[in-house]
Prior knowledge:
Blueprint: H1 2-13, H2 16-23, H3 32-65, H4 70-73, H5 76-102, H6 119-125, H7 131-165, H8 169-197, H9 206-229
Helix pairs in contact: 1-3, 1-9, 3-5, 3-7, 3-8, 5-7, 7-8, 8-9
Amino acid sequence: LSNLSFSDVCYSSSVSPKMLADFLSEQKWIPYNLCVLQMFCFGAFADVVCVMLSVMAYDRYVAICTPLLYTVTMSRRVCAQLVAIVYIQSLLYSAVFTYCTIHLSFCKSNTINHFFCDFPPLLAISTSDTTINEIVMFTYSSCVLGFSIVTVLLSYSYIITTILRMKSAKGRHKAFSTCASHLTAVAMFYGTLLFMYFRPSSSYSMDSDKVASVFYTVVIPMLNPIIYSLRN
């Protein structure tokens, strides 16, 4: 939970200050080096949040379905290894995408139709052939998001089955309350990503993308602490 909060703060902070400053300024611009840094940080920590939510779903599966083995299965060492894997793959992913993006040419326009420097808006204004970039981005994003969603769905299918088998109403209520906050965070974050990247091209709109971007870069990180505190 602390790593999720840290990631929320980092990826929101990589976008929010500059975005708010642009809202209050007539001239909306960003230095090239800062744009690259913003793109890298946002991509890395957004990926951390995405995968971390699936790791938390697995943690809840172990806690509810195999409680006697929890201290062994989710020991401090295992948790540290899972967190390390999440951060390493996310940083590598963002580093590769950022490296590929900065080697594109931007000869015709340097105006991004977005609130911040993100990979898709930069690919849209590039004068280079972005086919490889788009294939790599779509493939990796689909794999990460698909893996995360499948992990969450499988974990909660076992969790719900286990809860329904409980004879104690108090036990069922306690188990459901343990998962409710996480399910809410998962639904908001993954729902927004699915809306942005997996909807028909005929319904694509940059304006709707901007609204969705503000939602998952500013609103969701603000709501997560409130959501997770409801259980207490």
